[in-house]
From TrEMBL:
Family as reported in the entry's similarity comment: Belongs to the outer membrane factor (OMF) (TC 1.B.17) family.
SUPFAM superfamilies recorded: Outer membrane efflux proteins (OEP)
Organism: Sphingobacterium anhuiense
Localization, UniProt: Cell outer membrane
Protein name: TolC family protein
Record Pfam families: OEP (PF02321)
Keyword terms, alphabetized: Cell outer membrane, Membrane, Transmembrane, Transmembrane beta strand, Transport
Top-level division of the source organism's lineage: Bacteria
Transmembrane segments: none
Length: 456
């Protein structure tokens, strides 16, 4: 009975050690919050989306600038040899002679009215800027989930590795005992072979668990833009009370919070508002447009003469005498434009319907996802409770079979089966624990709560 108590105590200490978090934060350890923060700081997709937002900000600036008048300065100088008509002096030039003309002008144009298209374009570009900012949040949102998944996957595989190592130690101890019993004739060769087979099975489990751990840890490092050779120790979370986990969430409340927070839904709402503004912009094409233009200029010709004396006029005199100023209003009324405006309005309305449909589809899918997540959390919590009970029962059953095996009342196959069942129950418990933690944190993810673990 003492051996049974000692074995049972050792088995439970092993599994509880794997289920407990680290006692402190040592050098090289990283929490899930830190992993998320590092990922968001270094990720190139976030940087790319930020640059796209900067481009959208420039579009807003350009749309506002389009309301202002433009201003341009023009300077021209021309040399001509032979026949030409000099517009400055108003004479015909003949013969093999060089002439030179110069001109300078300043002009400005401004649109006074254009069916409010420019105003609506500013509003549309502002909405697109908000949409770009929401796209950044969506990328961060998706990255948070990826970090959470790989973080917990790495911890799960780490715990499975620890459990596999402990199972190998137990199996090797059994081989030693069976070897002694075989030498004195209390065990058969088949019993000894079965014990060695158990060691081989446990070693295979260790290899699989270790490979899975290294793979998930590598994926996490890649998300964090870290070197594959970097040392990384993950802080393990504690298990919250199952009753608390089961009672804290309502699917309806979770959906309402998720809908108000979800970046993708926000982006869909903004895209719908942009589509509405695009309709207003398209309708602006039906209105007349009015613009104002002003200009000021002067010119010079090497053939310019004084009309009274006939003397050539110097450069400065011509530039002063030839000054001109002009201003004009231009009104354009669309009568028929090959149905371009009509088609633009129709296409804008179709785009609005597409945006509304996309928003409805996103909200419907989010509702389904949230409801499924709440159900999954409940199932995961119940599975964890069942796994705790199953591990306890499998440990007791294995110890009973081992005691019977030690006195010759059970064979090696029975012992192998009992130990395999106990090992499987231990693996199931580890996976059930972290699955419940993940399902709990996925709700926080949907409603926008900070992703963090309770640790010792």
């Amino acid at each position: 009975m003492d051996d049974r108590k000692n074995y049972k105590k050792m088995a439970f200490m092993t599994i509880m050690f794997s289920l407990m978090g680290y006692a402190g934060f040592g050098q090289g350890q990283i929490t899930v919050e830190e992993a998320i923060r590092i990922t968001l700081e270094r990720n190139l997709q976030v940087k790319q989306a930020t640059l796209n937002k900067d481009l959208a900000a420039q579009d807003v600036y350009q749309a506002k600038s389009n309301l202002y008048p433009d201003l341009s300065i023009g300077v021209n100088q021309r040399f001509n040899n032979g026949f030409a008509f000099d517009q400055v002096s108003g004479t015909v030039i003949t013969g093999n002679e060089w002439t030179r003309t110069s001109s300078a002008s300043v002009s400005s144009n401004v649109t006074i009215f254009q069916g409010f298209q420019k105003i609506n374009q500013i509003k549309a570009n502002k909405l697109l800027l908000e949409s770009s900012a929401t796209q950044i949040e969506k990328i961060k949102y998706d990255l948070m989930l990826s970090v959470l998944v790989n973080y917990l996957e790495a911890i799960t595989n780490s715990e499975l590795t620890i459990a596999s190592q402990q199972q190998i130690l137990l199996s090797k101890e059994q081989v030693k005992n069976d070897s002694i019993q075989f030498q004195v004739g209390n065990k058969t060769l088949a019993d000894l072979s079965q014990s060695k087979n158990q060691v081989a099975t446990d070693e295979l489990n260790l290899v699989n668990a270790r490979n899975a751990y290294e793979s998930s840890l590598l994926t996490l490092k890649q998300l964090m833009e870290m070197s594959p050779q970097a040392e990384l120790k993950l802080v393990k979370p504690e298990v919250e009370a199952v009753d608390y986990v089961l009672g804290q969430y309502s699917a309806v409340n979770v959906f309402e919070k998720a809908k108000s927070f979800n970046p993708e839904v926000k982006k869909a709402q903004l895209d719908k508002e942009v589509a509405l503004k695009q309709i207003d912009i398209a309708k602006g094409g039906y209105y007349p447009s009015l613009s104002l233009g002003v200009s000021y200029g002067t010119n010079y010709s090497s053939k310019g003469r004084n009309l009274i004396t006939g003397d050539y006029l110097p450069f400065g005199d011509q530039f002063n005498q030839n000054k001109s100023f002009g201003a004009g209003l231009t009104l354009s009324v669309p009568i028929f434009d090959n149905n371009k405006n009509r088609i633009n309005v129709s296409k804008a309305k179709i785009n609005l319907e597409l945006a509304e449909t996309s928003q409805q589809l996103l909200e419907t899918n989010l509702n389904k996802t949230v409801n499924q997540a709440v159900l999954d959390l409940s199932a995961a919590a119940q599975r964890y409770q069942s796994s705790l009970a199953a591990f306890s029962s499998a440990t007791d059953a294995f110890q009973v079979i081992k005691e019977r095996y030690d006195i010759g009342m059970a064979n090696g196959i029975e012992l192998f089966t009992a130990q395999t069942n106990r090992n499987k129950a231990e693996f199931d418990l580890i996976q059930a624990k972290y699955n419940m933690i993940f399902k709990d944190k996925i709700i926080d993810y949907y409603v926008g709560n900070p992703i963090k673990f309770d640790v010792k």
